[in-house]
């Protein structure tokens, strides 16, 4: 008698892990974007926050695209 395959269980766990990581990344981006919206566009803090938002967005986009095959 064959043992049951555990392939589907592992895939489901990876998907749940992906979802939670992606939600966390999106949450970080949204909070950084909220801070950016409160800053004046001409300030040095705005430029630094814009750079951080761009990095967070790019990171989330790379993570999403790497998992979509």
Structural overview:
The structure is a single chain. This protein is mainly α and 69 residues long. Helices cover 81% and strands 0% of the residues. The protein has 2 helices and no strands. The longest helix has 32 residues. The model has no long low-confidence stretch (mean pLDDT 87).
Overview features:
about 70 residues, mainly alpha, 2 helices, about 0% strand
Could you give a short description of this structure?
The chain has 69 residues and is mainly α. The chain contains two helices and no strands.
> Count of DSSP helices?
2
Distance between the termini: 34 Å
* Rg measurement, Å: 18 Å
Average pLDDT, to the nearest integer? Answer: 87
User: Roughly what fraction of the amino acids lie in strands?
Assistant: under 5%
- Helix amount, in percent? over 70%
Low-confidence stretches: none
* Overall SS class: mainly alpha
Largest sheet: none
The H-and-E topology, N to C, reads as: HH
Question: What general outline do the C-alpha atoms trace?
Answer: rod-shaped
Q: Assembly type of the shown chains?
A: single chain
Blueprint of the fold:
Blueprint: H1 7-38, H2 44-67
């Amino acid at each position: 008698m064959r043992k049951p395959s555990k392939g589907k269980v592992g895939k489901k766990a990876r998907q749940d892990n992906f979802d939670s990581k992606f939600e966390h990344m999106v949450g970080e981006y949204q909070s950084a974007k909220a801070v950016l919206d409160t800053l004046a566009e001409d300030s040095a803090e705005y430029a630094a926050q814009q750079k951080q938002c761009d990095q967070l967005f790019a990171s989330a986009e790379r993570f999403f695209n790497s998992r979509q095959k």
